[in-house]
Specification:
This protein has one domain. The protein is mostly helical. The radius of gyration is 24 Å and the shape is elongated. Strands 1-2-3 form a three-stranded antiparallel beta sheet. The protein is built from six helices and three strands; from the N terminus they run ααββααβαα. Strand 1 and strand 2 form a beta hairpin.
Length: 311
């Protein structure tokens, strides 16, 4: 077994996955509610400015910025909870498929020898006698997704607290320092949260890859495993690059906070830089999802071939 036994118990996995889905929906709803509060607050500021009677608009917008970023972080954690449920269900699916295939085609599909690397309509695959061992990125994903999510949530929450300091000291050196820390910390947290989601997607790919291999090995047929697609390689690269940019923007804001960089000249380019970092990571997530879709299609085709060969 390559995963804790309790997560491979099908009834328990279904129950836990259902619980995670409920938690994710609740947390996503909280994120939406916070976003609506931010929207209502921004509209009230705009209305007051239009009427020319709001002298605290900048201060209110400061903490609304912190709350809005925290709301986005909350939604990302909800996405991560859904992905943990998908990981559980991926292992449950592999075990259910194994049991069904053993009953349906066990001992009827021949005993061909592995051929090494072969070509398929889904790309090159490796044929082995046993299920593949996890790759380095899989081991990293399994160990890193939880710390990344925890650090990310702590950072966006910490930035929200600092935003109230920013709000109370608009136009002062202390306010500028708080503004820099708010933005730098919160968007570093957003980067960590997206990294956690990326690592969870890597864990899903690990579950599909290893679980699918175990199913084939149980049937006594050569284990076919897709070689890492280019989309997976680019996914890893974009995730790493985006995380480095998120760390870089944090360093930039920290330099503003300690007076090394001038806020008036640094803020205009630090804002787009942080968005570029998040965009890179989101692009990587798209490629990870495309890879998952490809792996599922390949495994479905492999199951179909095994069933037909047993007839």
């Amino acid at each position: 077994m390559h995963y804790p036994t309790d997560l491979r118990d099908q009834a328990l996995a279904m129950d836990r996955a259902q619980g995670r889905r409920r938690q994710a929906v609740s947390l996503g709803g909280l994120g939406l509610l916070l976003g609506l509060i931010v929207l209502a607050g921004a509209i009230s500021v705009l209305t007051a400015l239009t009427n020319g009677n709001d002298t605290t608009a900048a201060g209110r917008l400061a903490w609304l910025f912190g709350l809005n970023t925290f709301a986005l972080g909350t939604v990302k954690v909800a996405i991560a909870l859904v992905l943990t449920a998908i990981v559980m269900l991926a292992w449950s699916r592999a075990d259910a498929m194994r049991d069904l295939l053993v009953q349906a085609v066990g001992g009827k599909v021949g005993s061909e020898q592995p051929r090494g690397t072969v070509g398929t309509t889904f790309g090159a695959v490796n044929e082995t006698a046993v299920a593949p061992e996890p790759l380095l990125i899989h081991r990293m994903a399994r160990s890193m997704w939880a710390p990344m999510l925890v650090m990310g949530l702590m950072a966006v929450a910490g930035g929200l607290v600092v935003s109230f300091v920013w709000s109370a000291d608009i136009g002062t050196p202390n306010g500028t320092t708080a503004a820099a820390w708010t933005q730098g910390i919160q968007f570093l947290g957003e980067g960590f949260l997206l990294a956690g989601i990326s690592f969870l997607l890597g864990t899903v790919l690990y579950a599909l890859r290893t679980g699918g291999g175990e199913v084939q090995a149980m049937l006594g047929v050569p284990v076919q495993t897709l070689r890492m697609p280019s989309t997976a390689k680019y996914f890893i690269g974009l995730m790493a690059l985006g995380l480095m940019v998120a760390m870089g923007q944090f360093v930039g804001y920290a330099l503003v906070a300690n007076g090394t960089l001038d806020a008036a000249t640094a803020f205009p380019w630090l804002g787009p830089l942080r968005e570029v970092g998040l965009g890179l990571m989101l692009s990587g997530i798209v490629l990870a999802l495309a890879t998952i879709a490809r792996v599922i299609a390949f495994q479905s085709d492999r199951v179909t071939v095994l069933i037909h060969s047993a007839k």
